[in-house]
Amino acid sequence: MTILAWNVMGMGNKKTVLALKNSIFKFNSSIIFLGETKQKEKYMERLRMRMNFYNSFYFDPIGIAGGLDLCWKKEVVVSILQAEKNFINSEISVNEEEAWYNTFIYGPSYYDEKEKFWQSLSSLRGRNQKRWCIIGDSNIVARKDEKARGSLSI
Q1: Which domains does the chain possess?
Q2: Contacts of 82 (CB under 8 A, 6+ apart)
Q3: 111-134 residue pLDDT tens
Q4: Is the pTM higher than 0.85?
């Protein structure tokens, strides 16, 4: 089983959609997490159907920012435990193997929202007794020279 996670920075571009389709085929992905889709659920639903992903959970963008899309194939069992604008917390199992917790994240880009985000993630761990994996984009950089765009505040 392969999980594909991508900060797509918008799914409205045909080249982005083609790159996503190619990646799904190349890696034979069973679960896909897209952060920052910037699209409403109807658009993403049509896209998912074209890629043969019929199970999904979607968190709409707020205005033109954000949007989280988690979709999975039929051999995977995903239970959504909690979702907010920056994460989807789930329990996943494949072929009746032991389940694990997986939190798919797209961290806030604004400095004043980061502490609350990390506190939310920390509280999730306190409840989880199974294996736990975090996948996505935390929007955290260690040094200013790692940042290519946007504000230099980290």
Answers
A1: 3-146 (3.60.10.10)
A2: 88, 89, 124
A3: 899 999 999 998 887 666 789 999
A4: yes
